[in-house]
Task: inverse folding
């Protein structure tokens, strides 16, 4: 590659970064943030959510500062935050909280009169972002789940998005003594997106501890059970059940002992919290 070609590519990256900074600033002004269940939710649709995160990642390139931090909330999270102030504090550290629950979307349209709002489930958002990322050269790092699911999630990602750069991966089972080394390695690899799937609230706690250390990362997105779904270890509910807000029921049918008690304890509490605002 000659110097002229390199110069053109450098100018192209700089121009995209400047455009991204402008888009990132715009996004902060046109994405409404209104409270539901005691949390400041960023209300948006999937396409806008993905494009906004891409813009944030590009804007962050070459800027040694903490990454843009996006997390998600559903009924279970709302209840956890209402019952544990420490968990609430973890969520309030995020730059963005997306709505990952159909009841939240329905209530936002009723209470806040927001017409173009969608459920932004991370299991869908991941694919929306990956589709754009492979076209613009943005990179991913996948941190979380067990070794088998993590590896399978990466393999599945490569299969679906062959032009996407995977900067690295690591399962989520590590000791406190290993954390600094893992964070340093991620920072060295400088991924545009760090997807952290460790479950609530462990993943939020990990991000809070390391947000100011991961200065070479563009965007951090907490991901819950994303890698288990991405690896096909667990299946998503049919589209009609997702549209009716019944994905929790589908998951309960598949894992009644683990999830049955959780949803019996939280669903009604979540509804009351949603209606309190």
Result:
């Amino acid at each position: 590659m000659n110097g002229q070609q390199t110069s053109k590519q450098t100018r192209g990256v700089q121009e995209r970064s400047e455009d991204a900074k402008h888009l990132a600033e715009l996004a902060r002004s046109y994405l409404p943030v209104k409270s539901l269940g005691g949390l400041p939710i960023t209300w948006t649709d999937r396409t806008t959510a993905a494009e906004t995160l891409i813009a944030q990642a590009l804007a962050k390139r070459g800027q040694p500062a903490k990454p843009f931090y996006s997390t998600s909330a559903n009924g279970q999270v709302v209840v956890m935050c209402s019952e544990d102030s420490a968990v609430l504090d973890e969520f309030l550290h995020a730059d963005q909280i997306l709505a990952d629950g159909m009841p939240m979307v329905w209530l936002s349209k009723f209470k806040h009169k927001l017409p173009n709002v969608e459920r932004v489930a991370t299991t869908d958002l991941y694919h929306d972002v990956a589709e754009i990322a492979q076209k613009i050269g943005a990179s991913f790092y996948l941190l979380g789940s067990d070794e088998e699911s993590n590896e399978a999630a990466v393999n599945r990602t490569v299969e679906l998005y062959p032009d996407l750069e995977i900067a690295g991966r690591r399962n989520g089972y590590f000791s406190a003594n290993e954390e600094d080394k893992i964070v340093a390695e991620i920072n060295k690899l400088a991924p545009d997106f760090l997807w952290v799937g460790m479950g609530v609230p462990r993943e939020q706690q990990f991000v809070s501890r390391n947000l100011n250390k991961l200065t070479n990362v563009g965007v951090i997105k907490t991901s819950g059970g994303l890698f288990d779904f991405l690896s096909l270890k667990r299946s998503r509910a049919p589209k009609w059940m997702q549209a009716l807000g019944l994905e929790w029921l589908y998951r309960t049918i598949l894992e009644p002992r683990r999830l049955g008690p959780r949803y019996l304890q939280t669903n009604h509490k979540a509804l009351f919290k949603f209606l309190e605002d």
Remarks:
- The beta strands are 33-36, 39-42, 68-73, 96-99, 139-144, 165-170, 193-197, 219-222.
- The mean pLDDT is 88.
- The two ends are 59 Å apart (CA to CA).
